[in-house]
Amino acid sequence: MTLHSFIQNATSPWMKNEGPDSDIVISSRVRLARNLEGITFPIIANEEELSPVPEKVEAHFAGHSHKRFGELSLIKMNDLTDNEKRILVEKHLISPNLSGKSKAGAVLLSEDESLSVMVNEEDHFRIQCLLPGFQLQEGLKYANDMDDWMEEKLDFAYDQRRGYLTSCPTNVGTGLRSSVMMHLPALVMTNQLNRILPAINQLGLVVRGIYGEGSEALGNLFQLSNQTTLGESESEIVEDLRSVVSQLVERERAAREQLLTQSTNIVEDRIYRSLGILSYSRRMESKEAMQRLSDIRLGIDTGIIKGIDAKILNELMVLTQPGFLQHYAGEALTAEQRDQRRATLIRERLTLEEHDGGVE
């Protein structure tokens, strides 16, 4: 698959599929951190020391076909413009950290973008599998399949007592980070989430924003992941997260029911106001767009709004980010120009949806 294809399409093919509990759990991700034996870890290595890593990936995996993921493509960071890197970050295919890395950075991608192997990020490899909805166990299985396939060709740094060795001590052991992206508007609106978060942290889990560590929780989207990897098996780590997420799904559903029962007019007014503003605005800042889209998504998932497919909200949440806006414009844009184009894009997309199905 060409670089143009990865950049051109806002929604990754895997996002177009339905998953369990997808009204609340947007996606599941399982990531494995691995390093090569005998090569200095990226956190302290220079570019010359790291250059053999993408070469090995290109020789053994790029252009080859995996039984689950199909043909894989290698994209090197030094082949991308700054805006193309930003787009891959906006699609969650690479991290902001890899985006700013040296010329030794790269990413190995499957055609449907459900597999992303970051090369020379914090570790030599970050194998991540992305699936729609609540599918942590499936994500672990697929990530392990890729891990096994790579280990047939490569020697990973491993210690009999400590497990897989990583740049950050918190990843030593299994090297596993499992996470889910959740849409929790009702828990935010009922002021319950701030009371729940401390309890989640005490369970060894962490809650972050939409783009991971250090990012803001825009559009009521939150990323939950495990913090520790040493001393627990992969299945135990995934099960701990699965249990907490299941409880959060139940609480969010209960909070939505509470809002619809006790504050029907207030909730409907908020949702339809957001729909009206998005349908007619001539400028829209990114933060407001995410919040308005969150309101509409809540309206779709609760049946208040009909005739709009929930998946277009996933699409718009990526399309309206700065990287994609500038890509489609074909030039660098000022903040004001991005706000104008964002509003236009949302209006046109909602109008297209109305023509296809109608909004009630």
Automatic annotation (TrEMBL):
**EC id:** 2.7.14.1
Q: For binding ATP, which residues are annotated in this chain's numbering?
A: 27-31, 92, 126, 177-181, 208-213
What the record says about family reads:
Belongs to the ATP:guanido phosphotransferase family.
The answer, when asked if ATP-binding is one of the entry's keywords, is yes
Task: State the protein's name.
Answer: Protein-arginine kinase
What Pfam families has UniProt attached to this entry?
ATP-gua_Ptrans
Instruction: Please tell me which stretches of this chain the record labels as motif RDXXRA motif of the pArg binding pocket involved in allosteric regulation.
Output: 338-343
Designated gene of the protein: mcsB
Function recorded in the entry: Catalyzes the specific phosphorylation of arginine residues in a large number of proteins. Is part of the bacterial stress response system. Protein arginine phosphorylation has a physiologically important role and is involved in the regulation of many critical cellular processes, such as protein homeostasis, motility, competence, and stringent and stress responses, by regulating gene expression and protein activity.
The reactions it catalyses are:
L-arginyl-[protein] + ATP = N(omega)-phospho-L-arginyl-[protein] + ADP + H(+)
Q: Which terms does the record give in the GO molecular function aspect? A: ATP binding; creatine kinase activity; protein arginine kinase activity
Free-text activity regulation comment from the record: Appears to be allosterically activated by the binding of pArg-containing polypeptides to the pArg-binding pocket localized in the C-terminal domain of McsB.
**What UniProt keywords apply to this chain's record, in alphabetical order?**
Allosteric enzyme, ATP-binding, Kinase, Nucleotide-binding, Transferase
Biological process, per Gene Ontology: phosphocreatine biosynthetic process
Name all Phosphagen kinase C-terminal domain ranges: 24-255
Does Repressor count among this protein's keywords?
no
Record's GO cellular component terms: extracellular space
